[in-house]
Amino acid sequence: MIRNGSHAVEDEDKRESGSSSHSPEKRKRVIRVWCDGCYDMVHYGHSNQLRQAKAMGDYLVVGVHTDEEIAKHKGPPVFTQAERYKMIRAIKWVDEIVEGAPYVTTLETLDKYNCDFCVHGDDITLTVDGKDTYDEVKRMGRYRECKRTPGVSTTDLVGRMLLLTKSHHSNVDNTAYQLHTDNFGKGPKGHSPWTGVCQFLQTSQKIIQFASGKEPQPGDTIIYVAGAFDLFHIGHVDFLETVHKQAEKPYVIVGLHFDQEVNRYKGKNYPIMNIHERTLSVLACRYVSEVVIGAPYAVGKDLLDHFKVDLVCHGKTEVFLDTDRTDPYAEPKKRGIFRILDSGNNLTTDDIVQRIIENRLQFEARNQKKEAKEMAVIEALKHKDDSLKAEAALAKK
Question: Where is the composition biased (Basic and acidic residues) (predicted)?
């Protein structure tokens, strides 16, 4: 059981980043931070970047690129710009978004939105002609770097969908998964450290960073929902926003089913994301107050009494029977606290996977193109470093 919340996380994050060491004079004014990106297939790695960025200041502005800009510089996005805008708005550390932000970050953009500096991960983002999109702000000292989240990338998630194996449920030692890490999107000159695939290792510290520990308050309406919430997407966001609107003071608890349970009722290679990854994805959503890791499939008396649940909600998607062929929502229905909600968005995880499968060649080409540009930069940096070492050696003679 992990408590969450859309506020009260900033103090903890600022302690983590050391931003509390700012002088009192500097802390008198609001520090505005800028982030930007494609934010296609938003995952907990993106959320973690935004969490770290918010910890460096007080107010986080996030610029999201258009479909046209992404197609020009990288290749076709999986999600539309309208979907990507809404996904970023749903992340609890984001204060404001800028739709249609320019692909290249300039001082003009930072000044336009009154931002002190921009934050990006410790990887590199390149334009269509291989130039660093943050070159100008780096040179002018208005760039900060945060740690990239190891073990997750859009490359990896796309690969899992295309593999149709269950290797990602356990570890990366499996032959099929290793083949994916070796080959998917590999450019002609080898792997880029920014596009490669590695294993995600969950830690208690990471969960603490994402959660806030907010307790339900007197007068709160405790609402329970459960499911896989796999590849956390805009369909989930719209549903949880609808759930959040069911009460004046909602306290939304999300029960996440274990991987084996999800695979029982979903089949194929589901879930694409394991339980640890799905936990962080849901915790990052501003409409969620608490997460139950490994929730029972049947919403029974013990669970309802333990959390003092006032309302149980489910979307319009199919309700699968429990292993004993019983209705998992029999108890809340009996109590008269069960409600079917229509968020107006019927997008499912199956639909996302289908988008990927239908455009497989495009995404593989996009990834190879991206990695080739990154490898060219790595070679150039290595050549520059070798030249500097050679010059230093000659100077010593």
Answer: 8-17
